[in-house]
Structure formats: C-alpha cells, structure tokens
C-alpha cells in the first residue's frame, strides 16, 4: 500500500459511475472481465449483482469453492459499506484495525480484501457490486478498475494504482 492509494481509491468511486445500469450492461462487463481472464489464463470467478439479484456469474478453470466464497464476502462488504472492499481495507489499515475489531463483523461473511467494487449510478447511488476473486487482492481490484475505465471511457492513468503493493 502506498500513501497515495487511498485517495486514488476514493477517486475511482467518484469517477467510475454509470448514467444507467441494467442486465445488459452487467452481461457486457462480466464478459469483458471473463475474456481478459481468458486471454491471460487467469483463474478467476466474477459476479456482478444488484444487491437483491445476481446478474452475471462465471468462473474460469482453476477456481475453487474458496474463490466463490471470497466473491460473496466481497459483495457483502460493498453492500454494507457502499465502497470498494479494497478501499475499506486501506481505511482499516490506516486505523490499524481489522473488520472484526472495528465493526464487530464476522470474517466468514465480510472481508476488507480487494476485489469488490460498487456499481454506482449517478444521482441514485450504490445499487450493487462487481466482485472478482482468484488473484492477489490488488490485481482483483485492478482488473475491475481497468474494465470500468475502458467501458466508461475514463482516463486510466489518473485512476491507476501504482505497481507497488
């Protein structure tokens, strides 16, 4: 984690917002992430959901039950805190606390590991999440960000985390 990461994570959520979001967009995003995983032979699982409804779920070769559990926990964290799970992890690290100490939540239902990102619709707010698991948490998070940046036509450089962890 770099000192600039938290400000970039906040900016990602401010910039990577949709005018509208529906099932077709979820399918397009999920397919893009899946194809990027396929291109690089990544063992990832992807779930895109509105908080009450799964819209896209796909897994690549090499994914285990644990990866599916991680996306569930990442989605739960996004829904509860209305921010990316990676941002939550950085905020907790700044306080030198974990999710159990700070919020009294069970780690079998929530996580502050990277790879869960809020679906934010302008003038509405957070309506769901995109979750990826199978890579180190920074890479899970960045895979989502890269996809959203390209899909929404935003400036990649200003939203990119540094390569150091």
Kindly describe this structure.
InterPro entries: PduO/GlcC-like, PduO/GlcC-like_sf, YBR137W-like. With about 160 residues, this protein is of the alpha+beta class. The protein has helices at about 5-15, 25-40, 65-80, 85-95, 100-105, 135-150, 155-160; strands spanning about 45-50, 55-60, 115-120, 125-135. It has one domain (about 5-155): Haem-degrading domain (Beta-Lactamase). The chain has seven helices and four strands, in the order ααββαααββαα. A four-stranded antiparallel beta sheet has the order 2-1-4-3, with helices on both faces. β1 and β2 (about 55-60) form a beta hairpin. The chain is globular and about 40 Å long.
Short overview:
The chain is of the alpha+beta class and 165 residues long. 49% of the residues lie in helices and 17% in strands. The protein has one domain: 2-Layer Sandwich (Beta-Lactamase).
Helicity level: 40-55%
Question: Class in CATH?
Answer: Alpha Beta
Global geometry: globular
CATH topology heading: Beta-Lactamase
Number of helices: 7
Strand content: 15-25%
Give the strand line-up of the largest sheet: 2-1-4-3
Class by SSE composition = alpha+beta
Q: How would you classify the quaternary structure?
A: single chain
List keywords for this structure.
165 residues; alpha+beta; Beta-Lactamase; 4-stranded antiparallel beta sheet; 7 helices; 4 strands; 49% helix; globular; PduO/GlcC-like_sf; YBR137W-like
């Amino acid at each position: 984690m770099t000192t600039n990461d938290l400000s970039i994570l906040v900016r990602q959520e401010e910039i990577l917002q949709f005018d509208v979001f529906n099932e077709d967009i979820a399918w397009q995003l999920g397919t893009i992430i899946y194809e990027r995983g396929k291109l690089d032979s990544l063992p990832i699982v992807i779930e895109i959901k509105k908080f009450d409804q799964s819209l896209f779920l796909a897994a690549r070769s090499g994914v285990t039950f644990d990866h599916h559990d991680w996306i569930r926990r990442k989605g739960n964290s996004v829904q509860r805190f209305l921010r990316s799970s990676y941002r939550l992890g950085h905020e907790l690290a700044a306080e030198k606390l974990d999710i159990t100490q700070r919020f009294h939540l069970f780690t079998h239902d929530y996580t502050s590991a990277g790879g869960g990102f809020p679906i934010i619709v302008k003038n509405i707010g957070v309506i769901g999440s995109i979750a990826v698991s199978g890579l180190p948490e920074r890479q899970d998070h960045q895979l989502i960000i890269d996809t959203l940046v390209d899909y929404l036509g935003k400036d990649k450089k200003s939203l990119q985390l540094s390569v150091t962890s």
